[in-house]
Amino acid sequence: MDISGRDNVLAALTSPDLAVTPPAPPATSPSTLAWLRAGVPRFSRGPEHTPRRGYTQAVIDRVDPVALRATARRLAEQALARHPAADVAREVPVRALADALGLPSVDVADVAAVAKVYLTAVGDPTDIIEADSAVARLVAAVGGGSDDQTAALVGVLVQSYQATATLISNSATALIVHDGLSSTEVVATTLVADPPTPPARRMAMVDTHVGDASVAAGETVLLAIGAAGFPFGAGPHACPGAAQATAIAEGVLDALRPAAPGEPPRS
């Protein structure tokens, strides 16, 4: 079922009857994709969600958006100097966060391998195997163990990958059209006109209602959160890193401005 409209989407995002997914089952093996999904707030609900959300927020709070914007600009300029067609949309967000968190050993390729199957844990068996190996390497790179705090740190890196890349790509396209606006204004415009967020999925845990719609237990609803004005979500699962994602996109646009408009970064 598709849910649209600001009021209906907000009601769904804040409803205790709707879960992001069925809670991820406990993992039998540490430092795997299943372990990561079982330990982060995105796939948690109820009493387990609150402390996991706190661990993620603690990671985010270590990253100053102003400094992050400057780091993103520097990394984008360096990448573009090496190769004018560098894929800064995918490379810079992870590298900038890793830099801010003091994690020089984080490999963007590992983050990409996990992000490919992170949301659903469904894919080609080879993708799952590669994701398991990548999670293990990321755990080692962040110097963590098998606890939820480590999962939160790895989760922040993984969740920075696709959505921030799309925000950068969409903003770079908008920059060509709105070259008179500041980077901050371009990103803000993009978040309204071309938000990077795909429809959010929620599953009804009990029979419930969203606005005038009846939703049966077990039924999945799709929420047009970007079109409804919630590009970073809302409610208990709202993105805690909205300021950091915006800062990274602004920094990349700062780096793109001196060059003549061309093909926007790939997403």
Textual characterization of the structure:
The protein is an alpha+beta fold and 267 residues long. The chain has one domain: Cytochrome P450 (Cytochrome p450). Helices cover 53% and strands 7% of the residues. A 4-stranded mixed β-sheet has the order 1-6-3-2, with helices on one face. A two-stranded antiparallel ribbon has the order 4-5. Strand 4 and strand 5 form a beta hairpin. The radius of gyration is 19 Å and the shape is globular. The two termini are 28 Å apart. The relative contact order is 0.21.
Rg, Cα atoms, Å: 19 Å
Q: What is the class in the CATH system?
A: Mainly Alpha
Molecular shape: globular
C-alpha end-to-end distance: 28 Å
DSSP strand content: 5-15%
CATH superfamily: Cytochrome P450
Report the helical percentage: 40-55%
Uncertain parts: 259-263
CATH topology (fold) name: Cytochrome p450
Q: SS-based structural class? A: alpha+beta
Biggest sheet descriptor? 4 strands, mixed
Provide the number of structural domains: 1
Strand order of the largest sheet: 1-6-3-2
CATH A-level architecture: Orthogonal Bundle
What is the mean predicted local confidence, pLDDT? 91
How many H/I helices? 11
Order of helices and strands: EHEHHHHHHHHHEEEEH
How many β-strand runs? 6
